[in-house]
Specification:
The chain is mainly α. It folds into two domains: about 80 residues, no CATH class; about 40 residues, no CATH class. It is built from three helices and two strands. It has a two-stranded antiparallel sheet with strand order 1-2. Helix 1 packs across helix 2. The longest helix is centred in the first third of the chain and has 23 residues. It is elongated.
């Protein structure tokens, strides 16, 4: 139980910092976070006890449905091989001039169409990887 309590406290602390950063911290919100962390750790323990070492899911919230992986044990990850830095100047030079037209073009859409979701609109149709060096 000692290791589980340590993980619980660590994860709950992260959730609290997240609420504070989002300016949504309250006693009620912390109560929900306690439940969230507890349930998350129970699912994790169940998965490990049943021979799973990771979860894989289609990420449609932060991507285009690519597979995302959640490892269940800290030994499954390694230190990054390479550290990249966002090239702000390159982004502003390339995306800055085309962004207004890009947004205008995608917002017009087909006649009579409903609102559409446009993945990666922030990048104005450019490859996001190209802005990191």
């Amino acid at each position: 139980m000692g290791k589980s309590n340590e993980i619980f406290r660590s994860e709950l602390s992260k959730r609290k910092r997240r609420l504070i950063a989002l300016d949504t911290y309250s006693k009620d919100e912390m109560y929900h976070e306690v439940i969230w962390v507890d349930l998350t750790l129970r699912v994790r323990l169940w998965a490990i006890d049943n021979g799973f070492d990771a979860f894989v899911y289609k990420n449609t919230s932060e991507g285009n449905g690519e597979d995302s992986f959640v490892t269940l044990q800290s030994k499954q990850t390694s230190e990054p091989v390479e550290e990249l830095v966002f090239d702000r100047e390159k982004y502003l030079d390339i995306v800055g001039p085309i962004f207004p037209e890009y947004v205008s073009r995608i917002s017009r859409g087909p006649s009579g169409s409903e609102m559409q979701t446009v993945p990666h609109v922030f990048w104005a149709g450019q490859d996001p990887v190209s802005f990191w060096r």
